[in-house]
Design brief:
Order of helices and strands: HHEEEEHEHEHHHEHEEHEEEHEHHHHHH
CATH architecture of the largest domain: 3-Layer(aba) Sandwich
Shape: globular
Strand order of the largest sheet: 10-9-8-7-11-12-13
Bound molecules: glutamic acid
Helix content: 40-55%
Number of helices: 16
CATH topology of the largest domain: Rossmann fold
Number of strands: 13
Oligomer: single chain
Radius of gyration: 23 Å
Structural class: alpha/beta
Protein backbone atom coordinates (compact mmCIF):
# COMPACT_ATOMS: atom_id res chain seq x y z
CA UNK A 1 0.00 0.00 0.00
CA UNK A 2 2.76 2.41 0.94
CA UNK A 3 4.20 2.89 -2.56
CA UNK A 4 0.73 3.20 -4.10
CA UNK A 5 0.35 6.70 -5.53
CA UNK A 6 -3.32 7.36 -6.16
CA UNK A 7 -2.86 10.87 -7.56
CA UNK A 8 -0.35 9.51 -10.13
CA UNK A 9 -2.90 6.89 -11.12
CA UNK A 10 -5.55 9.55 -11.76
CA UNK A 11 -3.06 11.61 -13.77
CA UNK A 12 -2.04 8.58 -15.83
CA UNK A 13 -5.65 8.04 -16.85
CA UNK A 14 -5.92 11.78 -17.57
CA UNK A 15 -2.78 11.75 -19.78
CA UNK A 16 -4.08 8.81 -21.76
CA UNK A 17 -7.23 10.78 -22.58
CA UNK A 18 -5.50 14.15 -23.10
CA UNK A 19 -3.95 12.81 -26.33
CA UNK A 20 -7.41 12.85 -27.88
CA UNK A 21 -7.97 16.53 -27.08
CA UNK A 22 -6.63 19.67 -28.76
CA UNK A 23 -5.18 21.43 -25.71
CA UNK A 24 -1.50 22.20 -25.25
CA UNK A 25 0.68 20.84 -22.44
CA UNK A 26 0.59 24.04 -20.35
CA UNK A 27 -3.17 24.15 -20.22
CA UNK A 28 -3.40 20.43 -19.54
CA UNK A 29 -0.92 20.84 -16.67
CA UNK A 30 -3.10 23.62 -15.22
CA UNK A 31 -6.20 21.40 -15.40
CA UNK A 32 -4.35 18.58 -13.61
CA UNK A 33 -2.82 20.67 -10.82
CA UNK A 34 -4.35 20.86 -7.34
CA UNK A 35 -5.07 24.55 -6.81
CA UNK A 36 -5.02 24.60 -3.00
CA UNK A 37 -3.99 22.05 -0.37
CA UNK A 38 -4.74 22.55 3.32
CA UNK A 39 -3.11 20.28 5.87
CA UNK A 40 -4.07 20.66 9.50
CA UNK A 41 -3.41 19.07 12.87
CA UNK A 42 -5.47 19.87 15.92
CA UNK A 43 -5.93 18.47 19.42
CA UNK A 44 -8.87 16.31 20.45
CA UNK A 45 -9.71 16.09 24.10
CA UNK A 46 -10.83 12.48 24.49
CA UNK A 47 -13.62 11.42 26.86
CA UNK A 48 -11.04 10.23 29.41
CA UNK A 49 -9.37 13.67 29.42
CA UNK A 50 -6.32 12.66 27.40
CA UNK A 51 -5.23 14.62 24.33
CA UNK A 52 -4.75 13.18 20.86
CA UNK A 53 -3.51 14.97 17.75
CA UNK A 54 -5.89 14.62 14.80
CA UNK A 55 -4.65 15.01 11.20
CA UNK A 56 -6.89 16.32 8.45
CA UNK A 57 -6.74 17.60 4.88
CA UNK A 58 -8.87 19.60 2.48
CA UNK A 59 -7.84 19.87 -1.15
CA UNK A 60 -9.47 22.16 -3.68
CA UNK A 61 -8.40 20.73 -6.97
CA UNK A 62 -9.91 23.16 -9.44
CA UNK A 63 -11.29 26.67 -9.13
CA UNK A 64 -12.53 26.91 -12.72
CA UNK A 65 -16.02 26.91 -11.22
CA UNK A 66 -17.04 27.82 -7.69
CA UNK A 67 -17.86 26.57 -5.17
CA UNK A 68 -15.56 23.57 -5.12
CA UNK A 69 -17.31 20.40 -4.04
CA UNK A 70 -16.51 17.03 -2.57
CA UNK A 71 -16.93 14.77 0.42
CA UNK A 72 -15.06 14.46 3.69
CA UNK A 73 -13.95 10.96 4.63
CA UNK A 74 -12.98 9.48 7.97
CA UNK A 75 -10.58 6.64 7.37
CA UNK A 76 -7.10 5.43 8.29
CA UNK A 77 -6.25 5.45 4.58
CA UNK A 78 -6.49 9.26 4.47
CA UNK A 79 -3.32 11.12 3.47
CA UNK A 80 -2.39 14.05 1.27
CA UNK A 81 -1.90 11.97 -1.87
CA UNK A 82 -5.27 10.25 -1.45
CA UNK A 83 -7.08 13.53 -0.82
CA UNK A 84 -5.46 15.15 -3.88
CA UNK A 85 -6.43 12.21 -6.07
CA UNK A 86 -10.01 12.21 -4.81
CA UNK A 87 -10.29 15.99 -5.24
CA UNK A 88 -9.07 15.68 -8.84
CA UNK A 89 -11.59 12.90 -9.49
CA UNK A 90 -14.33 15.22 -8.18
CA UNK A 91 -13.41 17.88 -10.77
CA UNK A 92 -13.58 15.38 -13.63
CA UNK A 93 -16.72 13.72 -12.27
CA UNK A 94 -18.57 17.05 -11.98
CA UNK A 95 -17.53 17.97 -15.53
CA UNK A 96 -18.68 14.60 -16.93
CA UNK A 97 -22.19 15.01 -15.47
CA UNK A 98 -22.38 18.81 -16.04
CA UNK A 99 -22.51 19.73 -12.36
CA UNK A 100 -21.12 23.31 -12.24
CA UNK A 101 -18.59 22.89 -9.43
CA UNK A 102 -14.83 22.59 -9.13
CA UNK A 103 -13.57 19.44 -7.41
CA UNK A 104 -12.49 19.18 -3.78
CA UNK A 105 -12.06 16.52 -1.11
CA UNK A 106 -11.34 16.35 2.57
CA UNK A 107 -10.30 13.68 4.97
CA UNK A 108 -9.48 13.01 8.60
CA UNK A 109 -7.12 10.15 9.37
CA UNK A 110 -9.08 8.23 12.00
CA UNK A 111 -10.80 4.91 12.37
CA UNK A 112 -14.21 6.20 13.36
CA UNK A 113 -15.09 3.14 15.42
CA UNK A 114 -12.22 4.01 17.80
CA UNK A 115 -14.12 7.14 18.95
CA UNK A 116 -17.29 7.83 20.90
CA UNK A 117 -20.07 9.87 19.28
CA UNK A 118 -19.14 12.83 21.46
CA UNK A 119 -15.49 12.60 20.34
CA UNK A 120 -16.54 12.37 16.68
CA UNK A 121 -18.68 15.46 17.15
CA UNK A 122 -15.75 17.38 18.68
CA UNK A 123 -13.48 16.28 15.81
CA UNK A 124 -16.03 17.33 13.19
CA UNK A 125 -16.77 20.70 14.77
CA UNK A 126 -13.10 21.55 15.26
CA UNK A 127 -12.31 20.52 11.67
CA UNK A 128 -15.14 22.78 10.44
CA UNK A 129 -13.81 25.65 12.52
CA UNK A 130 -10.35 25.17 10.98
CA UNK A 131 -11.87 25.17 7.50
CA UNK A 132 -13.84 28.32 8.28
CA UNK A 133 -10.81 30.13 9.67
CA UNK A 134 -8.83 29.36 6.53
CA UNK A 135 -11.72 30.26 4.17
CA UNK A 136 -12.00 26.65 3.03
CA UNK A 137 -15.75 26.37 3.52
CA UNK A 138 -18.78 28.41 2.44
CA UNK A 139 -21.72 28.15 0.02
CA UNK A 140 -19.77 30.04 -2.65
CA UNK A 141 -16.30 28.77 -1.68
CA UNK A 142 -16.11 25.06 -0.92
CA UNK A 143 -18.98 22.76 0.04
CA UNK A 144 -18.27 19.41 1.77
CA UNK A 145 -20.54 16.34 1.72
CA UNK A 146 -20.52 12.80 3.14
CA UNK A 147 -17.99 10.24 1.98
CA UNK A 148 -16.51 7.01 3.36
CA UNK A 149 -17.01 7.00 7.15
CA UNK A 150 -19.25 10.09 7.32
CA UNK A 151 -23.00 10.62 6.96
CA UNK A 152 -25.83 13.15 7.36
CA UNK A 153 -25.09 13.38 11.09
CA UNK A 154 -21.60 14.82 10.52
CA UNK A 155 -22.97 17.19 7.87
CA UNK A 156 -25.48 18.49 10.41
CA UNK A 157 -22.62 19.21 12.84
CA UNK A 158 -20.71 20.98 10.07
CA UNK A 159 -23.67 23.25 9.27
CA UNK A 160 -24.34 24.01 12.91
CA UNK A 161 -20.68 24.91 13.53
CA UNK A 162 -20.50 27.04 10.39
CA UNK A 163 -23.56 28.94 11.53
CA UNK A 164 -21.89 29.84 14.83
CA UNK A 165 -19.51 32.01 12.83
CA UNK A 166 -21.42 33.01 9.74
CA UNK A 167 -24.73 34.81 9.58
CA UNK A 168 -24.86 34.81 5.80
CA UNK A 169 -28.21 34.28 4.17
CA UNK A 170 -27.16 31.18 2.23
CA UNK A 171 -25.31 29.50 5.10
CA UNK A 172 -27.33 26.29 4.68
CA UNK A 173 -25.57 25.76 1.35
CA UNK A 174 -22.15 25.43 3.06
CA UNK A 175 -22.48 21.63 3.16
CA UNK A 176 -24.67 19.00 1.48
CA UNK A 177 -25.91 15.58 2.47
CA UNK A 178 -27.50 17.15 5.55
CA UNK A 179 -30.41 15.70 7.52
CA UNK A 180 -33.75 16.62 5.94
CA UNK A 181 -34.81 18.94 8.74
CA UNK A 182 -31.54 20.86 8.50
CA UNK A 183 -31.84 21.79 4.82
CA UNK A 184 -31.17 18.35 3.34
CA UNK A 185 -32.99 17.04 0.27
CA UNK A 186 -35.07 13.93 -0.30
CA UNK A 187 -33.08 11.25 -2.10
CA UNK A 188 -29.55 12.43 -1.17
CA UNK A 189 -28.77 9.44 1.07
CA UNK A 190 -29.66 6.97 -1.67
CA UNK A 191 -28.27 9.15 -4.49
CA UNK A 192 -24.88 7.55 -5.19
CA UNK A 193 -26.30 4.01 -5.16
CA UNK A 194 -29.30 5.15 -7.19
CA UNK A 195 -26.97 6.79 -9.73
CA UNK A 196 -24.93 3.57 -9.97
CA UNK A 197 -28.15 1.72 -10.70
CA UNK A 198 -29.27 4.21 -13.40
CA UNK A 199 -25.81 4.12 -14.99
CA UNK A 200 -25.72 0.33 -15.17
CA UNK A 201 -29.32 0.20 -16.34
CA UNK A 202 -28.36 2.45 -19.24
CA UNK A 203 -25.21 0.46 -20.01
CA UNK A 204 -27.01 -2.90 -20.07
CA UNK A 205 -29.79 -1.53 -22.27
CA UNK A 206 -27.26 -1.27 -25.13
CA UNK A 207 -27.92 -4.40 -27.17
CA UNK A 208 -24.66 -4.31 -29.16
CA UNK A 209 -22.48 -3.86 -26.09
CA UNK A 210 -24.26 -6.70 -24.28
CA UNK A 211 -23.89 -8.98 -27.29
CA UNK A 212 -20.11 -8.48 -27.25
CA UNK A 213 -20.11 -9.47 -23.56
CA UNK A 214 -22.33 -12.49 -24.22
CA UNK A 215 -25.08 -11.04 -22.01
CA UNK A 216 -28.76 -10.35 -22.47
CA UNK A 217 -30.07 -6.79 -22.30
CA UNK A 218 -31.50 -5.52 -19.00
CA UNK A 219 -30.77 -5.86 -15.29
CA UNK A 220 -33.24 -8.67 -14.62
CA UNK A 221 -31.63 -12.04 -13.99
CA UNK A 222 -28.07 -10.69 -13.90
CA UNK A 223 -25.87 -11.85 -11.03
CA UNK A 224 -23.73 -9.41 -9.08
CA UNK A 225 -21.15 -9.22 -6.33
CA UNK A 226 -20.84 -6.14 -4.13
CA UNK A 227 -17.77 -5.11 -2.16
CA UNK A 228 -18.80 -2.95 0.80
CA UNK A 229 -22.30 -2.69 2.22
CA UNK A 230 -21.94 0.93 3.26
CA UNK A 231 -24.30 3.61 2.04
CA UNK A 232 -23.30 3.32 -1.64
CA UNK A 233 -22.98 -0.48 -1.83
CA UNK A 234 -26.16 -1.11 0.11
CA UNK A 235 -28.33 1.20 -1.98
CA UNK A 236 -26.86 0.06 -5.30
CA UNK A 237 -27.50 -3.58 -4.28
CA UNK A 238 -31.05 -2.76 -3.20
CA UNK A 239 -31.95 -1.13 -6.52
CA UNK A 240 -30.35 -3.98 -8.50
CA UNK A 241 -32.34 -6.55 -6.52
CA UNK A 242 -35.57 -4.54 -6.88
CA UNK A 243 -35.00 -4.64 -10.64
CA UNK A 244 -34.60 -8.44 -10.60
CA UNK A 245 -30.83 -8.92 -10.31
CA UNK A 246 -29.39 -11.60 -8.02
CA UNK A 247 -26.81 -10.76 -5.37
CA UNK A 248 -24.48 -13.78 -5.28
CA UNK A 249 -21.57 -12.42 -3.27
CA UNK A 250 -20.74 -9.78 -0.69
CA UNK A 251 -17.44 -8.57 0.74
CA UNK A 252 -17.19 -6.66 3.99
CA UNK A 253 -14.36 -5.81 6.39
CA UNK A 254 -14.58 -9.18 8.18
CA UNK A 255 -14.58 -11.34 5.05
CA UNK A 256 -16.58 -12.43 2.03
CA UNK A 257 -19.55 -14.72 1.42
CA UNK A 258 -21.03 -16.38 -1.67
CA UNK A 259 -24.20 -18.19 -2.70
CA UNK A 260 -24.84 -18.64 -6.38
CA UNK A 261 -28.59 -18.90 -5.75
CA UNK A 262 -28.71 -15.43 -4.21
CA UNK A 263 -28.34 -13.70 -0.85
CA UNK A 264 -31.22 -11.92 0.93
CA UNK A 265 -30.05 -8.32 1.43
CA UNK A 266 -32.49 -7.33 4.20
CA UNK A 267 -31.74 -10.46 6.25
CA UNK A 268 -28.00 -10.06 5.69
CA UNK A 269 -28.16 -6.51 6.99
CA UNK A 270 -29.97 -7.63 10.13
CA UNK A 271 -27.39 -10.38 10.61
CA UNK A 272 -24.56 -7.90 10.11
CA UNK A 273 -25.97 -5.61 12.81
CA UNK A 274 -26.31 -8.44 15.32
CA UNK A 275 -23.07 -10.29 14.57
CA UNK A 276 -20.96 -7.21 13.72
CA UNK A 277 -19.99 -8.88 10.45
CA UNK A 278 -21.29 -10.99 7.56
CA UNK A 279 -19.29 -14.20 8.06
CA UNK A 280 -21.48 -17.19 8.94
CA UNK A 281 -24.65 -15.77 7.35
CA UNK A 282 -26.86 -18.86 6.92
CA UNK A 283 -26.89 -20.46 3.49
CA UNK A 284 -23.69 -18.81 2.29
CA UNK A 285 -20.18 -20.10 1.78
CA UNK A 286 -17.42 -18.19 3.56
CA UNK A 287 -14.53 -17.46 1.22
CA UNK A 288 -10.92 -17.32 2.30
CA UNK A 289 -10.63 -13.54 2.72
CA UNK A 290 -12.48 -10.30 2.09
CA UNK A 291 -11.13 -9.88 -1.44
CA UNK A 292 -11.76 -13.48 -2.56
CA UNK A 293 -15.33 -12.76 -3.64
CA UNK A 294 -14.08 -10.19 -6.16
CA UNK A 295 -12.84 -13.18 -8.16
CA UNK A 296 -16.18 -15.01 -7.99
CA UNK A 297 -18.33 -15.96 -10.98
CA UNK A 298 -20.86 -13.14 -11.68
CA UNK A 299 -22.09 -10.77 -14.40
CA UNK A 300 -21.53 -7.49 -12.58
CA UNK A 301 -18.88 -6.71 -9.98
CA UNK A 302 -19.63 -3.62 -7.87
CA UNK A 303 -16.62 -2.39 -5.90
CA UNK A 304 -18.24 0.06 -3.48
CA UNK A 305 -15.58 0.46 -0.80
CA UNK A 306 -12.18 2.11 -1.16
CA UNK A 307 -9.61 2.69 -3.89
CA UNK A 308 -7.03 0.20 -5.23
CA UNK A 309 -9.06 -3.00 -4.83
CA UNK A 310 -8.62 -4.42 -8.33
CA UNK A 311 -4.86 -4.56 -8.85
CA UNK A 312 -2.27 -6.62 -10.71
CA UNK A 313 -2.59 -9.12 -7.83
CA UNK A 314 -6.16 -10.14 -8.69
CA UNK A 315 -6.96 -8.61 -12.10
CA UNK A 316 -6.29 -11.80 -14.10
CA UNK A 317 -8.69 -13.70 -11.82
CA UNK A 318 -11.67 -11.32 -12.12
CA UNK A 319 -14.45 -13.14 -13.94
CA UNK A 320 -17.17 -10.45 -13.98
CA UNK A 321 -18.18 -9.15 -17.40
CA UNK A 322 -19.10 -5.70 -16.16
CA UNK A 323 -17.17 -3.75 -13.53
CA UNK A 324 -19.41 -1.09 -11.97
CA UNK A 325 -17.08 1.32 -10.18
CA UNK A 326 -19.28 2.61 -7.37
CA UNK A 327 -16.21 3.51 -5.27
CA UNK A 328 -13.64 6.13 -6.20
CA UNK A 329 -10.53 4.67 -7.85
CA UNK A 330 -11.20 0.97 -7.14
CA UNK A 331 -9.20 -0.20 -10.19
CA UNK A 332 -5.49 0.51 -10.66
CA UNK A 333 -4.42 1.61 -14.16
CA UNK A 334 -2.58 -1.67 -14.73
CA UNK A 335 -5.55 -3.75 -13.55
CA UNK A 336 -7.84 -1.68 -15.77
CA UNK A 337 -5.85 -2.70 -18.86
CA UNK A 338 -5.75 -6.39 -17.86
CA UNK A 339 -9.51 -6.52 -17.22
CA UNK A 340 -10.33 -4.54 -20.34
CA UNK A 341 -8.11 -6.72 -22.55
CA UNK A 342 -9.98 -9.74 -21.26
CA UNK A 343 -13.05 -8.18 -22.84
CA UNK A 344 -14.91 -6.89 -19.77
CA UNK A 345 -16.75 -3.57 -19.77
CA UNK A 346 -15.58 -1.16 -17.07
CA UNK A 347 -18.08 1.57 -16.17
CA UNK A 348 -15.74 4.12 -14.61
CA UNK A 349 -16.01 5.88 -11.27
CA UNK A 350 -15.64 9.35 -12.79
CA UNK A 351 -19.04 8.80 -14.32
CA UNK A 352 -20.77 6.02 -12.41
CA UNK A 353 -20.62 7.31 -8.85
CA UNK A 354 -21.53 10.89 -9.79
CA UNK A 355 -25.09 10.46 -8.49
CA UNK A 356 -24.05 11.66 -5.05
CA UNK A 357 -22.62 14.96 -6.20
CA UNK A 358 -25.48 15.43 -8.68
CA UNK A 359 -28.06 15.32 -5.90
CA UNK A 360 -25.74 17.43 -3.72
CA UNK A 361 -26.00 20.02 -6.48
CA UNK A 362 -29.80 19.85 -6.24
CA UNK A 363 -29.57 20.23 -2.45
CA UNK A 364 -27.29 23.26 -2.78
CA UNK A 365 -29.72 24.80 -5.31
CA UNK A 366 -32.56 24.21 -2.85
CA UNK A 367 -30.54 25.88 -0.08
CA UNK A 368 -29.63 28.99 -2.02
CA UNK A 369 -33.15 29.28 -3.44
CA UNK A 370 -34.70 28.79 -0.01
CA UNK A 371 -37.56 26.77 -1.45
CA UNK A 372 -38.30 23.06 -1.72
CA UNK A 373 -38.49 21.73 -5.30
CA UNK A 374 -42.12 21.23 -6.31
CA UNK A 375 -43.49 23.63 -3.73
CA UNK A 376 -44.69 26.18 -6.28
CA UNK A 377 -45.90 23.89 -9.06
CA UNK A 378 -47.07 20.58 -7.60
CA UNK A 379 -50.69 21.51 -6.91
CA UNK A 380 -51.05 23.50 -10.14
CA UNK A 381 -49.77 20.50 -12.09
CA UNK A 382 -52.26 18.21 -10.32
CA UNK A 383 -55.17 20.54 -11.05
CA UNK A 384 -54.17 20.70 -14.73
CA UNK A 385 -53.96 16.90 -15.03
CA UNK A 386 -57.38 16.61 -13.36
CA UNK A 387 -58.87 19.03 -15.89
CA UNK A 388 -57.52 16.88 -18.73
CA UNK A 389 -58.95 13.73 -17.12
CA UNK A 390 -62.36 15.44 -16.78
CA UNK A 391 -62.28 16.37 -20.48
CA UNK A 392 -61.43 12.77 -21.37
CA UNK A 393 -64.42 11.66 -19.26
CA UNK A 394 -66.77 14.04 -21.09
CA UNK A 395 -65.67 12.94 -24.57
CA UNK A 396 -65.53 9.21 -23.83
CA UNK A 397 -67.32 6.61 -21.75
CA UNK A 398 -64.29 6.29 -19.54
CA UNK A 399 -64.87 7.22 -15.86
CA UNK A 400 -61.81 7.40 -13.62
CA UNK A 401 -61.91 6.17 -10.04
CA UNK A 402 -60.53 8.35 -7.24
CA UNK A 403 -57.56 5.98 -7.00
CA UNK A 404 -56.83 6.30 -10.73
CA UNK A 405 -57.08 10.07 -10.53
CA UNK A 406 -54.66 10.00 -7.61
CA UNK A 407 -52.11 8.11 -9.69
CA UNK A 408 -52.66 9.81 -13.07
CA UNK A 409 -52.91 13.34 -11.73
CA UNK A 410 -49.97 13.19 -9.33
CA UNK A 411 -47.83 16.31 -9.48
CA UNK A 412 -44.07 16.06 -9.01
CA UNK A 413 -42.80 16.74 -5.48
CA UNK A 414 -39.21 17.00 -4.32
CA UNK A 415 -38.54 13.24 -4.24
CA UNK A 416 -39.88 12.71 -7.78
CA UNK A 417 -38.02 15.71 -9.18
CA UNK A 418 -34.72 14.68 -7.60
CA UNK A 419 -35.08 11.15 -8.93
CA UNK A 420 -36.00 12.38 -12.39
CA UNK A 421 -33.13 14.89 -12.47
CA UNK A 422 -30.68 12.21 -11.36
CA UNK A 423 -31.90 9.67 -13.91
CA UNK A 424 -31.76 12.23 -16.72
CA UNK A 425 -28.21 13.20 -15.73
CA UNK A 426 -26.96 9.61 -15.62
CA UNK A 427 -28.56 8.68 -18.95
CA UNK A 428 -27.41 11.80 -20.81
CA UNK A 429 -23.87 11.56 -19.51
CA UNK A 430 -23.63 7.86 -20.35
CA UNK A 431 -24.63 8.58 -23.90
CA UNK A 432 -22.17 11.47 -24.11
CA UNK A 433 -19.24 9.31 -23.02
CA UNK A 434 -20.39 6.29 -25.02
CA UNK A 435 -20.35 8.46 -28.17
CA UNK A 436 -16.78 9.55 -27.40
CA UNK A 437 -15.85 5.94 -26.74
CA UNK A 438 -17.00 4.97 -30.22
CA UNK A 439 -15.60 8.06 -31.91
CA UNK A 440 -12.07 7.56 -30.56
CA UNK A 441 -12.19 3.77 -30.16
CA UNK A 442 -11.22 4.01 -26.48
CA UNK A 443 -12.58 2.61 -23.22
CA UNK A 444 -15.28 4.37 -21.21
CA UNK A 445 -12.84 5.71 -18.59
CA UNK A 446 -10.75 7.39 -21.25
CA UNK A 447 -13.94 8.65 -22.90
CA UNK A 448 -15.13 10.17 -19.61
CA UNK A 449 -11.76 11.90 -19.16
CA UNK A 450 -11.91 13.21 -22.76
CA UNK A 451 -15.37 14.60 -22.04
CA UNK A 452 -14.16 16.28 -18.83
CA UNK A 453 -10.93 17.66 -20.36
CA UNK A 454 -12.83 19.13 -23.32
CA UNK A 455 -15.30 20.92 -21.04
CA UNK A 456 -12.60 22.17 -18.64
CA UNK A 457 -10.20 23.15 -21.41
CA UNK A 458 -12.71 25.45 -23.07
CA UNK A 459 -13.43 27.20 -19.76
CA UNK A 460 -9.73 27.68 -18.99
CA UNK A 461 -9.13 29.02 -22.49
CA UNK A 462 -11.93 31.55 -22.13
CA UNK A 463 -10.78 32.62 -18.66
CA UNK A 464 -7.28 33.56 -19.78
CA UNK A 465 -4.58 34.03 -17.18
CA UNK A 466 -5.00 36.55 -14.36
CA UNK A 467 -3.63 39.18 -13.81
N1 LIG B 1 -18.43 11.92 -1.56
C1 LIG B 1 -19.22 11.85 -2.73
C2 LIG B 1 -18.35 11.62 -3.95
O1 LIG B 1 -17.26 11.14 -3.85
C3 LIG B 1 -20.17 13.01 -2.87
C4 LIG B 1 -19.55 14.36 -3.00
C5 LIG B 1 -20.54 15.51 -2.92
O2 LIG B 1 -21.74 15.28 -2.88
O3 LIG B 1 -20.06 16.64 -2.90
O4 LIG B 1 -18.75 11.84 -5.04
Amino acid sequence: MSNYKFYDQVNKAFDKAAKYTRFDQGLLAQIKACNAVLRIAFPLEKDDGSIEVIHGWRVQHSHHKLPTKGGIRYSLTVNEDETMALAALMTYKCAVVDVPFGGAKGGIRINKSDYSDAELERITRRFTFELYKKSFIGPGIDVPAPDYGTSAREMGWILDTYRQFSSELNAEGCVTGKPLNQGGIRGRTEATGRGVFFGIEEAVSNKDDMKILGLEEGIEGKTFVVQGLGNVGYHAAKYFIDAGAIMVGVAEIDGSIYNKKGIDLAKLLEYKMESKGIIGFPGTKTLKNNSAVLEAECDILVPAALENQLTTKNATKIKAKIIAEAANGPTSTEAHDIIKNRGALIIPDNYLNAGGVTVSYFEWLKNIQHVRFGRMGKRFEEESYKKILRVIETISDRKFTEKEIGILAKGAGEAELVDSGLKDTMINSYNQINELRKKHDVDLRTAAFISAINKLGVIYEQMGIFP
